[in-house]
Design a protein that fits this description.
Blueprint: E1 2-5, H1 15-24, E2 29-33, H2 41-47, E3 51-58, H3 63-73, E4 79-83, H4 87-94, E5 101-103, H5 114-123, E6 126-130, H6 132-136, H7 139-158, E7 163-166, H8 178-187, H9 192-212, E8 217-219, E9 222-223, H10 226-230
Parallel strand pairs: 1-2, 2-3, 3-4, 4-5, 5-6, 6-7
Antiparallel strand pairs: 8-9
């Protein structure tokens, strides 16, 4: 299982510190999402027992800016995440096969409906269940977060939409063990295995993208055959 986190400078803790904490919680890898390039990741992978995934989370004001960022970052990063939160950004994300994950679709003024659910399924865009607001807020904010996540779960289940799960941690102190996330998931209607499967999906996405960009492929989706290998 992998967890997706924000590390310095986008979060409060360094990538290595988050990775060490994640290992103690039983994770096999950490998806580190941010905008800055991190050339030290190859070195850290050799030093740590936890996989580090070089991801980017695009936070754009509108689809036009998001489209440019997707084009720039897609060839550079192992995972591409687009932050939603408006109807226009949510729609743009689920209609883009180049986007791996739509993050925070229900935040801000964002909404998610059956049309977006079908598009996400058809284009293989994972929808994120960010449990962070449930874990770290209270009162009316927490109640609204639970309501949004329940609605999202119903749509994802009914339309068989691929999804990922995270705690939205911005530091190593905000990480939570898989069993804790499973307990939160039960409150919104998920069973334990569904939450764990959402954590495993980060790893499946990473392995798929690494394979697609490996030397065994001439281009994404076009695998090198024996004749090309002989050349």
């Amino acid at each position: 299982m992998y967890e997706a986190v924000y590390a310095h400078p986008d979060g409060e803790s360094t990538a290595s510190r988050v990775a060490l904490a994640a290992e103690r919680y039983g994770y096999d890898g950490v998806v580190v999402r941010g905008m800055d390039a991190r050339p030290e990741y190859d070195r850290l992978r050799d030093e740590l027992d936890v996989d580090l995934v070089d991801a980017v989370e695009i936070d754009a004001p509108d689809p036009e800016h998001a489209s440019g960022a997707v084009g720039n970052y897609r060839p550079q990063r192992e995972l591409l995440i687009l932050r939603g939160g408006t109807n226009a950004l949510n729609r743009f994300a689920v209609e883009q096969p180049r986007v791996d994950v739509l993050a925070r679709p229900m935040s801000g003024r964002g909404n998610f409906n059956h049309v977006l659910a079908k598009a996400a399924r058809e284009n293989g865009v994972r929808v994120e269940f960010d449990l962070g607001p449930v874990l770290r807020t209270e009162g009316g904010t927490r109640v609204q977060s639970l309501s949004d996540l329940r609605k999202l779960r119903e749509l994802v289940e009914y339309y068989d939409v691929p999804y990922v799960v995270s705690a939205g941690a911005h530091s190593h102190l905000e990480l939570r063990a898989p069993r804790e996330l499973a307990a939160v998931g039960a409150v919104i209607g998920f069973d334990r295995e569904q939450i764990l499967d959402g954590l495993r999906e980060w790893r499946r996405l990473t392995e798929r993208n690494r394979e697609l960009t490996s030397e065994s492929f001439i281009a994404p989706g076009v695998k090198r055959g024996r004749y090309e290998e002989d050349d």
